[in-house]
């Protein structure tokens, strides 16, 4: 999933504020920030591995298993505003360090959770996601100021590419380190201890590097005040409201499909794969999004974002319905190919929704980023459907989500915005 700070306007104000924009001596800091994007992607996609693992260990229903995503993505909604207040108090650099340390604590909590039960795991997921949320509020603006303003877009593309690389590697690594363990330990919660303690150590080390890095100072007085600036409200713009619904449903569909992939591929009439074997296919789902970004970049140089979005959504619906009512390898590859369609959806919906908001851009961006909570709600709802209708038919819900994306893209097909 694409990651955007709940206050993207900070990037613009930061890029314009200060001499650091032209400083070419921040390559080390850019490397650290790029590693952060990689870690966000890897940690988020590891949820797809842990959901079926914890479901089997604690004999959970699908609704109970989807509490993982509910707690993880619910943190985006709950923590975004407090995170902004924390950054105002600590500053961007120390705020990023705080986010890294909170995320490290969340990873470390997986160790006692392996003894204490599912409830402690849910707490660990929430703490981990809270740290990531704080981190994103603090770290995203640095991407635009770590070098000349004219190359800011290329730096943003670079960091997003490494985010996609993380989401691609995460499931494969999790399958190898967590799901492929044989013997009595294979069905035990203890298999998460080593990998997540290693992640905790890596995050703590990154916090130290970030604390010691010589980063440009970003003035935050302007960007964090945008929400209340001027008269009126971003809510008065219909395309923003529809875009927020689109972000909610898109993130929900993308996360929900990833969450159910291992169980779906384990169905006897689909592929009958063991969890460890299915994990590598989850990586293909996320890799499709990475490849699709490059294709989308080329296509949208000549085709409007709305038309491209509508086309991708239409194909996604066809693929999900094929997986829902098909069987065997056709159904398996259809659902995996949805990742390719997902590639351009988040940035395209986001940019179309904030197009033309003017002074309300900051508020609109905050609204859209809080809509990421769809990643908590939609998987939970699909879990309820899976418990009552079965895993395969439950994919009708993501298909319905993509139907709204199709409507949004078709409605604003003639809108041209800079990608």
Describe the structure.
- The protein is an all-alpha fold and 419 residues long.
- It has two domains: 1-227, Growth Hormone, Chain: A (Up-down Bundle), CATH 1.20.1250.20; 229-419, MFS general substrate transporter like domains (Growth Hormone, Chain: A), CATH 1.20.1250.
- The protein has helices at residues 9-16, 27-57, 62-65, 67-90, 92-108, 110-116, 118-145, 152-179, 193-212, 238-265, 275-299, 305-325, 328-342, 345-353, 361-370, 374-389, 396-411.
- Helix 6 (110-116) packs antiparallel against helix 7 and helix 10 (238-265) runs antiparallel to helix 17.
- The radius of gyration is 21 Å and the shape is globular.
What can be said about this structure in brief?
This protein folds into 2 domains: 1-227, Up-down Bundle (Growth Hormone, Chain: A); 229-419, Growth Hormone, Chain: A, CATH 1.20.1250.20. 73% of the residues lie in helices and 0% in strands. It has helices at 9-16, 27-57, 62-65, 67-90, 92-108, 110-116, 118-145, 152-179, 193-212, 238-265, 275-299, 305-325, 328-342, 345-353, 361-370, 374-389, 396-411.
């Amino acid at each position: 999933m694409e990651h955007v700070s709940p206050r993207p306007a900070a990037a613009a104000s930061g890029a314009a504020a200060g001499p650091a924009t032209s400083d070419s001596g921040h390559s080390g800091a850019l490397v650290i920030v790029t590693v952060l994007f990689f870690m966000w992607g890897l940690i988020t996609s590891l949820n797809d591995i842990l959901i079926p693992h914890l479901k089997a260990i604690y004999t959970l229903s699908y609704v109970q298993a989807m509490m993982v995503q509910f707690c993880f993505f619910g943190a985006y909604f709950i923590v975004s505003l407090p995170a902004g207040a924390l950054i105002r108090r600590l500053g961007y650099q120390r705020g990023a360090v705080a986010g890294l340390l909170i995320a490290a604590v969340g990873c470390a909590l997986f160790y006692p959770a392996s003894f204490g039960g599912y409830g402690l795991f849910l707490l660990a997921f929430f703490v981990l996601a809270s740290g990531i949320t704080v981190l994103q509020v603090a770290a995203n603006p640095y991407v635009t100021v770590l070098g000349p303003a004219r190359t800011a877009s290329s730096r943003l593309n670079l960091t997003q590419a490494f985010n996609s690389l993380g989401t691609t590697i995460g499931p494969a690594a999790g399958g190898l380190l967590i799901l492929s363990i044989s013997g009595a330990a294979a069905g035990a919660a203890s298999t998460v201890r080593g990998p997540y303690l290693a992640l905790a150590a890596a995050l703590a080390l990154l916090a130290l590097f970030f604390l010691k890095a010589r980063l440009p100072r970003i003035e935050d007085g302007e960007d964090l005040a945008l929400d209340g600036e001027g008269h009126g409200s971003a809510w008065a713009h219909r395309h923003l409201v529809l875009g927020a619904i689109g972000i909610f449903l898109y993130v929900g569909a993308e996360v929900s499909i990833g969450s159910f992939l291992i169980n779906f591929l384990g169905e006897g009439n689909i592929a009958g794969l063991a969890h460890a074997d299915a994990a590598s296919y989850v990586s293909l789902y996320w890799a499709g999004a990475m490849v699709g970004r490059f294709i989308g970049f080329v296509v949208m140089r000549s085709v409007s974002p709305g038309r491209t979005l509508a086309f991708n959504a239409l194909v996604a619906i066809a693929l999900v319905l094929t997986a829902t009512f098909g069987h065997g390898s056709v159904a398996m590859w259809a659902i995996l190919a949805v990742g390719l369609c997902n590639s351009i959806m988040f940035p395209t919906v986001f940019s179309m929704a904030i197009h033309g908001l003017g002074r309300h851009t900051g508020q609109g961006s905050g609204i859209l980023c809080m809509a990421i909570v769809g990643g908590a709600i939609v998987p939970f709802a699909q879990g309820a459907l899976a418990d009552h209708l079965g895993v395969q038919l439950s994919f009708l819900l993501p298909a319905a989500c993509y139907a709204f994306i199709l409507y949004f893209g078709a409605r604003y097909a003639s809108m041209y915005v800079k990608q």
